[in-house]
Amino acid sequence: MKGEIRVLLYHSTEDTEGITAAYHQVSRAMDGVPGLLGNELLVSPYDSTEFVVVSRWASRADFDRWERGPEHKGQTAPLRPYRHPGMARPFGVYEVSAAYPAAGAGVPAGRRSR
């Protein structure tokens, strides 16, 4: 986990079906991208028009290579209309600096990052 990258993309829409379909379309298009470990579509339990797509990357180098590559814009295009309009920068890129999985989550206690 330590050294992995998380990318958060903030979206806002009342079109729940549309953003869900776009998320699945983007996820299928990105299947097999080197270094992409997975992604999730989150919806706020407090405001059903607020969404976040979180992607997990093995390293910043993997993410940067994909982001600078020619396929990046096309692969993510279906989600672009849903980007949060009220944010100057509707995304964030973060490196995992520490992690502590819950006991029983499949990571031996001696291997946990602190």
TrEMBL record:
Key words, A-Z: Monooxygenase, Oxidoreductase
EC number annotated for this UniProt entry: 1.14.-.-
Presence of the UniProt keyword Oxidoreductase in the record: yes
Molecular function per GO: monooxygenase activity
Domain of life: Bacteria
Enzyme class, spelled out: oxidoreductase
Domain ABM: 1-91
Name by which UniProt lists this protein: Antibiotic biosynthesis monooxygenase
Organism: Streptomyces huasconensis
Lineage: Bacteria, Bacillati, Actinomycetota, Actinomycetes, Kitasatosporales
